[in-house]
Amino acid sequence: MTDTAERVRRAARDHLGLTDLRPGQLPATTALADGRDTLAVMASGGGKSAIYQVPAALLPGPTLVVSPLIALQRDTPAYGTSSGDGARSSGGRRTG
């Protein structure tokens, strides 16, 4: 296991309480933590939020996540607030 993968596992445990990562989470999360652009296509409930949140805990400075998922827009600021980090959500509303 790479150093980054071990840091990802530790951050997932420490920040989100995850003892295990779901299939596909470790490679995507490790790639993001290494600073690589990453596309993760997963089913609902597949653990996409953790893929964004864990590297954000490892990387210096703010992290911008652009997602059309309303659930992710709600979950991420709640995580940031509970971890002591500032987090904001800017969700557009559809009209008409």
From TrEMBL:
UniProt keyword terms in alphabetical order: ATP-binding, DNA-binding, Helicase, Hydrolase, Isomerase, Nucleotide-binding
Catalytic activity as recorded in UniProt: Couples ATP hydrolysis with the unwinding of duplex DNA by translocating in the 3'-5' direction
DEAD/DEAH-box helicase domain ranges (all copies): 23-76
Record region (Disordered): 1-22, 75-96
Keyword Hydrolase attributed: yes
Bias (Low complexity) ranges: 80-96
Tagged with keyword Transit peptide: no
Enzyme Commission (EC) number: 5.6.2.4
Recorded superkingdom: Bacteria
GO terms, molecular function: helicase activity
Basic and acidic residues biased stretches: 1-17
Family: Belongs to the helicase family. RecQ subfamily.
Protein name: DNA 3'-5' helicase
Lineage, highest ranks first: Bacteria, Bacillati, Actinomycetota, Actinomycetes, Streptosporangiales
